[in-house]
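User: Some background: our group keeps a shared notebook of sequences we're curious about, and every so often someone picks one and asks for a predicted structure to add to the entry. Today it's my turn. The entry only has the sequence so far, pasted here. Could you supply the structure so I can complete it?
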Amino acid sequence: MSKIRLGIVGSGIVVKEFHYPALKELTDLFEITAVTSRTKKNAVALAKTVGTAQVFDNMEEMLKSGLVDAVDLALPVNLNYEFIKNAIKYNVHVICEKPVAHNLEYGEKIVELSQKTDKVIYIAENYRHFKSFHKAKELIKQDKIGNPLHLSWIIFNGLDINNPYAKTAWRKMPKHLGGFISDGGVHNVASMRLILGEIKNVKAITKNISGYLGGYDFITSVFEFESGATGHYTVFYSLNSEEEFLIFGDRGTLKIGYDYLQFNDDLIKFPEETFENSFNYEFIDFYKIVTGQKPNDLGSPMEALKDLEFFEKALSGKNKQEREQ
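Assistant: Of course. Here's the predicted structure to add to the notebook entry:
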C-alpha cells in the first residue's frame, strides 16, 4: 500500500498526546512530511520528535510545497473552516479535530465544501470508533433488551484548574458554541446517535459551576430520539465522580463502558480497547476513505454537524427550522 504524505497543522495537547502517538504506530499508512504551528519553536520541536518532517512558517507554504497529500488539523475550533477551505483549494485531503466548527453557520459551510469536492474532509470523532458502542447498537438491533425506552448518561470529567485543557487559551475564552459544553459534548452526542439514532426536542439547563473553565461547565438535558425513546444527558466538567451510561429496554438494560458492555447478567469485555486506540482507528479509517476502500461514514462533516446541532438546540431551545423562520 502507498503511504499518505501527511502534514500536521498545530502542535497542541491533542497532537502530542494522541495524534502523533497514533501515527507513530501507523508508519505503513502515513509518512509525516511537514509540520507547522502558530509558534515556530513549537513546530520545530514537533519536527524533531517526528524526525524527518520539514517545518513551514504557515499552512499556505506547506500546501504550496507539494510535500503533502493530506493535512491533520488540530486547531482552535473557530479556525476550522478557513483552514479546511484552504486545503481543499490546493487539492489536499483533510482530517480535522472535532467539533466541525464553532457554530452551525460555519459547520454548514464545511458540509457544503465536502459536497463540492472529491477530496476527503474527515471530522475526527474518536468516540465513533469505540467497539463497545458499536456492540451496543448491534445488541439493540438483535432485540437483546427489547424495545429501547430510555437512555441515561451522567458524566464527571473532573477538570481542575491545573488541567492542561482548562488552561488552553482558546478554551478559556471560547468563541465556539457553549465552550466545553460542545467541545467535549460532541463526543457523547456522536455516541448516543450512533447507538439509538437521530435526536430531537432537546431541552437543557446549563451553568458555570467552577468559574475557571471559560463559560458553561455543566449541562443537564432531556430529549427524544426519532425512534420514540427518551434521553437524559448530564455532564459536570469540573466535578469528579463515577460515570454511568445506561439504556433501558422493556425487557432488559444495557450498561455501557468504553471497554465493556453489560446487558442483563451478561458481561462483554474489550480488554484491548483503550482511549488511545480510538485515535489509531480514526486515522486508519481516514486512510481507507482516501484510498477509496470505504465511504466516509464515521468522519462525515454532516454527521459532525448533527452532533453540534444538539447543543444549538440545547442552548437556544430552537431547532434549525425555527432558526430559519
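Suggested note for the entry: The longest strand covers residues 148-156. Residues 318-325 have pLDDT under 50 and may be disordered.
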